[in-house]
Write a structure and sequence with these properties.
Layout: H1 2-12, H2 17-24, E1 30-36, E2 45-51, H3 69-82, E3 84-90, H4 92-98, H5 100-113, E4 121-125, E5 136-139, H6 142-145, H7 147-170, H8 176-179, H9 185-194
Parallel strand pairs: 1-4, 4-5
Antiparallel strand pairs: 1-2, 2-3
Helix pairs in contact: 3-7, 4-5
Length: 209
Protein backbone atom coordinates (compact mmCIF):
# COMPACT_ATOMS: atom_id res chain seq x y z
CA UNK A 1 0.00 0.00 0.00
CA UNK A 2 2.79 2.42 0.88
CA UNK A 3 4.53 1.69 -2.44
CA UNK A 4 1.25 2.28 -4.32
CA UNK A 5 0.70 5.60 -2.53
CA UNK A 6 4.25 6.74 -3.32
CA UNK A 7 3.82 5.75 -6.96
CA UNK A 8 0.58 7.73 -7.21
CA UNK A 9 2.21 10.84 -5.72
CA UNK A 10 5.02 10.59 -8.25
CA UNK A 11 2.53 10.31 -11.12
CA UNK A 12 0.68 13.41 -9.92
CA UNK A 13 3.81 15.48 -9.37
CA UNK A 14 4.50 18.18 -11.96
CA UNK A 15 7.95 17.90 -13.54
CA UNK A 16 10.65 20.30 -14.70
CA UNK A 17 11.20 18.55 -18.03
CA UNK A 18 9.91 21.44 -20.16
CA UNK A 19 11.77 24.11 -18.17
CA UNK A 20 14.99 22.11 -18.34
CA UNK A 21 14.73 21.68 -22.11
CA UNK A 22 14.30 25.45 -22.52
CA UNK A 23 17.31 26.15 -20.30
CA UNK A 24 19.41 23.83 -22.45
CA UNK A 25 18.35 25.96 -25.43
CA UNK A 26 19.70 29.07 -23.72
CA UNK A 27 16.62 30.44 -21.92
CA UNK A 28 18.20 30.78 -18.50
CA UNK A 29 15.11 32.15 -16.74
CA UNK A 30 11.84 30.28 -17.35
CA UNK A 31 8.61 31.45 -15.71
CA UNK A 32 5.45 29.46 -15.24
CA UNK A 33 2.15 31.36 -15.09
CA UNK A 34 -1.42 30.45 -14.19
CA UNK A 35 -4.62 32.18 -13.11
CA UNK A 36 -7.54 31.39 -10.82
CA UNK A 37 -11.04 32.75 -10.37
CA UNK A 38 -12.34 32.70 -13.95
CA UNK A 39 -15.57 30.91 -13.06
CA UNK A 40 -16.38 32.66 -9.79
CA UNK A 41 -19.39 34.90 -9.24
CA UNK A 42 -17.43 37.17 -6.92
CA UNK A 43 -13.90 38.31 -6.23
CA UNK A 44 -10.96 39.06 -8.50
CA UNK A 45 -9.23 37.05 -11.17
CA UNK A 46 -5.71 36.46 -9.84
CA UNK A 47 -2.66 35.28 -11.78
CA UNK A 48 0.80 34.36 -10.59
CA UNK A 49 4.14 33.96 -12.35
CA UNK A 50 6.95 31.93 -10.78
CA UNK A 51 10.57 31.34 -11.75
CA UNK A 52 11.76 28.33 -9.77
CA UNK A 53 15.35 28.09 -8.59
CA UNK A 54 16.80 25.23 -10.70
CA UNK A 55 19.13 24.32 -7.84
CA UNK A 56 16.32 23.85 -5.33
CA UNK A 57 13.82 20.99 -5.47
CA UNK A 58 10.40 21.60 -3.93
CA UNK A 59 8.75 18.22 -3.35
CA UNK A 60 5.01 17.92 -3.85
CA UNK A 61 4.52 20.54 -6.56
CA UNK A 62 1.34 19.81 -8.48
CA UNK A 63 -1.87 21.42 -9.69
CA UNK A 64 -3.29 23.44 -6.79
CA UNK A 65 -6.69 21.75 -7.27
CA UNK A 66 -5.11 18.43 -6.25
CA UNK A 67 -3.88 19.80 -2.91
CA UNK A 68 -5.55 20.38 0.43
CA UNK A 69 -5.61 23.95 1.81
CA UNK A 70 -2.89 23.00 4.32
CA UNK A 71 -0.69 21.56 1.57
CA UNK A 72 -1.18 24.69 -0.55
CA UNK A 73 -0.21 26.95 2.35
CA UNK A 74 2.93 24.91 3.04
CA UNK A 75 3.97 24.92 -0.60
CA UNK A 76 3.15 28.63 -0.93
CA UNK A 77 5.63 29.33 1.88
CA UNK A 78 8.29 27.19 0.21
CA UNK A 79 7.74 28.70 -3.24
CA UNK A 80 7.70 32.33 -2.13
CA UNK A 81 10.74 31.72 0.09
CA UNK A 82 12.93 30.28 -2.67
CA UNK A 83 11.64 31.42 -6.09
CA UNK A 84 11.10 34.67 -7.96
CA UNK A 85 7.38 35.32 -8.08
CA UNK A 86 4.77 37.98 -8.73
CA UNK A 87 1.01 38.26 -8.91
CA UNK A 88 -1.48 40.18 -11.00
CA UNK A 89 -5.12 40.84 -10.17
CA UNK A 90 -8.21 42.17 -11.95
CA UNK A 91 -11.11 43.50 -9.89
CA UNK A 92 -14.72 42.32 -10.29
CA UNK A 93 -15.64 45.65 -11.89
CA UNK A 94 -12.89 45.26 -14.46
CA UNK A 95 -13.90 41.63 -15.11
CA UNK A 96 -17.35 43.01 -16.00
CA UNK A 97 -15.81 45.72 -18.20
CA UNK A 98 -13.33 43.49 -20.04
CA UNK A 99 -15.05 40.05 -19.93
CA UNK A 100 -13.47 37.21 -17.97
CA UNK A 101 -11.18 35.91 -20.71
CA UNK A 102 -9.61 39.31 -21.37
CA UNK A 103 -9.39 39.87 -17.62
CA UNK A 104 -7.48 36.58 -17.26
CA UNK A 105 -5.06 37.63 -19.99
CA UNK A 106 -4.57 41.00 -18.30
CA UNK A 107 -3.84 39.38 -14.92
CA UNK A 108 -1.30 37.03 -16.54
CA UNK A 109 0.42 39.96 -18.30
CA UNK A 110 0.56 41.87 -15.02
CA UNK A 111 2.13 38.95 -13.15
CA UNK A 112 4.80 38.24 -15.77
CA UNK A 113 5.62 41.94 -16.22
CA UNK A 114 6.07 42.31 -12.46
CA UNK A 115 8.86 39.71 -12.31
CA UNK A 116 12.27 41.30 -11.74
CA UNK A 117 14.25 40.72 -13.83
CA UNK A 118 11.90 39.86 -16.68
CA UNK A 119 12.04 36.12 -17.54
CA UNK A 120 13.61 34.92 -20.78
CA UNK A 121 10.65 32.62 -21.52
CA UNK A 122 7.13 32.10 -20.17
CA UNK A 123 5.15 28.86 -19.94
CA UNK A 124 1.44 29.55 -19.50
CA UNK A 125 -1.31 27.18 -18.52
CA UNK A 126 -3.75 26.64 -21.35
CA UNK A 127 -3.15 29.38 -23.89
CA UNK A 128 -0.79 32.03 -25.20
CA UNK A 129 -1.10 35.63 -23.99
CA UNK A 130 -1.12 38.37 -26.66
CA UNK A 131 1.32 41.28 -26.31
CA UNK A 132 3.30 39.57 -23.57
CA UNK A 133 6.70 40.91 -24.56
CA UNK A 134 8.65 37.68 -23.92
CA UNK A 135 8.82 34.38 -25.83
CA UNK A 136 6.08 32.06 -24.60
CA UNK A 137 4.32 28.74 -24.96
CA UNK A 138 0.78 27.83 -23.93
CA UNK A 139 0.55 24.34 -22.48
CA UNK A 140 -2.74 22.46 -22.21
CA UNK A 141 -2.97 20.98 -18.72
CA UNK A 142 0.22 22.82 -17.82
CA UNK A 143 -0.56 22.95 -14.10
CA UNK A 144 -0.29 19.14 -14.04
CA UNK A 145 2.65 18.80 -16.42
CA UNK A 146 5.00 21.67 -15.61
CA UNK A 147 6.50 22.40 -12.18
CA UNK A 148 6.75 26.17 -12.71
CA UNK A 149 3.10 26.40 -13.79
CA UNK A 150 2.04 24.21 -10.85
CA UNK A 151 3.93 26.55 -8.52
CA UNK A 152 2.17 29.53 -10.10
CA UNK A 153 -1.21 27.84 -9.66
CA UNK A 154 -0.49 27.42 -5.95
CA UNK A 155 0.64 31.03 -5.46
CA UNK A 156 -2.39 32.34 -7.37
CA UNK A 157 -4.83 30.12 -5.47
CA UNK A 158 -3.49 30.98 -2.01
CA UNK A 159 -3.35 34.69 -2.87
CA UNK A 160 -6.94 34.68 -4.08
CA UNK A 161 -8.23 32.57 -1.18
CA UNK A 162 -6.67 35.03 1.27
CA UNK A 163 -8.36 37.91 -0.54
CA UNK A 164 -11.71 36.13 -0.35
CA UNK A 165 -11.20 35.61 3.39
CA UNK A 166 -10.52 39.36 3.68
CA UNK A 167 -13.70 40.15 1.74
CA UNK A 168 -15.60 37.86 4.13
CA UNK A 169 -14.33 39.95 7.04
CA UNK A 170 -15.64 43.07 5.30
CA UNK A 171 -19.04 41.52 4.48
CA UNK A 172 -19.78 38.13 6.09
CA UNK A 173 -23.28 37.74 4.59
CA UNK A 174 -22.15 35.66 1.60
CA UNK A 175 -19.70 33.18 3.15
CA UNK A 176 -16.78 34.07 0.88
CA UNK A 177 -14.40 32.36 3.31
CA UNK A 178 -16.06 29.01 2.54
CA UNK A 179 -16.86 28.99 -1.18
CA UNK A 180 -14.33 31.64 -2.30
CA UNK A 181 -16.91 33.34 -4.52
CA UNK A 182 -17.96 30.30 -6.55
CA UNK A 183 -21.60 29.40 -7.22
CA UNK A 184 -22.40 27.03 -4.38
CA UNK A 185 -25.99 26.63 -3.26
CA UNK A 186 -25.30 28.63 -0.08
CA UNK A 187 -23.76 31.44 -2.12
CA UNK A 188 -26.68 31.57 -4.55
CA UNK A 189 -29.15 31.61 -1.66
CA UNK A 190 -27.24 34.53 -0.09
CA UNK A 191 -27.31 36.44 -3.38
CA UNK A 192 -31.05 35.80 -3.72
CA UNK A 193 -31.55 37.15 -0.22
CA UNK A 194 -29.14 40.12 -0.17
CA UNK A 195 -28.52 40.93 -3.82
CA UNK A 196 -25.10 41.53 -5.33
CA UNK A 197 -22.33 43.18 -3.31
CA UNK A 198 -19.42 45.29 -4.52
CA UNK A 199 -17.38 42.07 -4.64
CA UNK A 200 -19.72 40.46 -7.18
CA UNK A 201 -19.41 40.45 -10.96
CA UNK A 202 -22.60 41.96 -12.32
CA UNK A 203 -22.30 40.22 -15.70
CA UNK A 204 -22.31 36.74 -14.13
CA UNK A 205 -25.90 35.52 -13.91
CA UNK A 206 -26.28 31.83 -13.03
CA UNK A 207 -29.48 30.16 -14.17
CA UNK A 208 -30.54 29.56 -10.57
CA UNK A 209 -31.08 33.30 -9.99
Amino acid sequence: MARSSTSRRLRLAARRTIENSLRRRGFDSVAGADEVGRGALAGPVVAAAVVLDPRRHIPGLRDSKLLTPAQRERLYTEITGSARWAVGSVTPADVDRLNVHRASLDALRQAIAALEPRPAFALIDGFRVPDLGVPQRGIAGGDRRCAAIAAASIVAKVTRDREMARLHEVDPRYGFDRHKGYATRAHLEAVARFGYSEAHRRTFRPRAL
